[in-house]
Amino acid sequence: MRDKKTILTSAVATVTAFVMLAQFVSCEKYVLPELTISRDTIIFNYNIDSASLDIKSNVIWEIETPDISFSNQWVIVRPNWADGDATVIFKTTLNEGPRRETKARVFSETIERFLILIQEAAPEDPEDPGNQDGDPVTF
């Protein structure tokens, strides 16, 4: 009976020591967050246009364009978030007015990058296509 108690006590002590030792050996690894974008400015022509942006990351990230209202959404971003690396596609609508510009924010919990989005102005229609200089026409 005493041998059984000794064996049981030794087994419990061994398991307890192993558990305590395993807690020190299996330290949690911490990876520094990373978030890089392939460029910092995208220029679109005035027509319906699209462009891509490569994002390299090891964390969850999101893109927001705070200056663009829901009623005047001239640029659409897909996907607007991901977990890790992704290629983002920006698509614009037809610009029939002046140049448009906004700053997009690409961010995670700890990192923030900015991207300038510019869409060229619509071309101005000359009043007389045969007279590009605007001089009065004389006969």
Search tags:
alpha+beta, rod-shaped, 139 residues, single chain, five-stranded mixed β-sheet, 1 helix, four-stranded antiparallel β-sheet
Short description:
17% of the residues lie in helices and 36% in strands.
Descriptive overview:
By secondary structure, the chain is α+β, with helices and mostly antiparallel strands. It is 17% helix and 36% strand. It has 1 helix and 9 strands; from the N terminus they run H-E-E-E-E-E-E-E-E-E. The strands form 2 sheets. The chain has a 5-stranded mixed β-sheet, with no helix packed on it. Strands 1-3-7-5 form a 4-stranded antiparallel β-sheet, with no helix packed on it. A hairpin with a 4-residue loop joins strand 8 (100-107) and strand 9 (112-119).
Succession of helices and strands = HEEEEEEEEE
Measured as a percent range, the helix fraction is 10-25%
**Biggest sheet record:** 5 strands, mixed
Shape: rod-shaped
Strand content: 35-45%
Low-confidence stretches: none
